[in-house]
Amino acid sequence: MTVGLGRSLCGIVLVALAVASAPPARAALACPASRPDVVVTPKLADPVIDNTLPQPALQKLAGKAYHGGRTLGLYRAELRAQWPISFGMRDADGETCRWIDGVVVEILAPERRIFIVRARPPGTCWYDSVLAHERKHQATDAAVVAEYAPRLEREIARAISALPAGALVPVGQAAAAQRRLVAPVQAAIKHVLDALDAARRARQAAIDTPQEYRRVAAACG
Q: What are phi and psi of 181, to 5 degrees?
């Protein structure tokens, strides 16, 4: 009864621009400090329960080394992340300033699945014992994501607050100015997501102990 972790967390950054009202005169043009909205939202789908596979097919899915070739259940989920970053923009007289207006991080598990070997049908103690074990893996994912989401918000906010004050640049340098703003934010996000991934793997592995397997085997007498 092994957890399938999938690949490490990956990320997608999307950039959007929000155009601020241009000031009436060049003297009034200034780059405001970034005071963005930072939101981290977990979106973990409820697992689908699959009770259709015979043991050899389930073992092939899990890998022949899993559980000594006697896998009876499997939890599979892959976490992903994406973080659209929106910018404020103000242009005048061939110059521009950009600032981060918002960061929305979504931690996604769009498809999660719990497999229970077909020989253990619903309504039996044997089915319930396997399902209860796989639910521990499901709950661990939810707990780790819930724990790290506030940390991710704090680290993003800290990275943005450490950015240097905005400065006017020629319009032709706008893209480079945005990249300079994005780089430390992306680094902060990656740092926390890497820590989340490591914690997740360690906690999931800690569920699958010989003692736990003995408990499941003995649950139905």
A: -75, -40
For 50, residues 6+ apart whose C-beta sits below 8 A from its C-beta are 113, 114, 115, 116
Query: What is the value of pTM for the model shown?
Result: 0.84
Name the pairing type of β-strands 2-4 and 73-77. parallel
Contact 10, 80 (CB under 8 A): yes
Q: For residue 129, give Cα distances in angstroms to 1, 17, 140, 152, 177.
A: 11, 52, 17, 35, 56
- pLDDT, tens digit (0-9, with 9 covering 90-100), for 109-132: 999 999 999 999 999 999 999 999
DSSP code of residue 40: E
Beta bridge partners of 91: 96
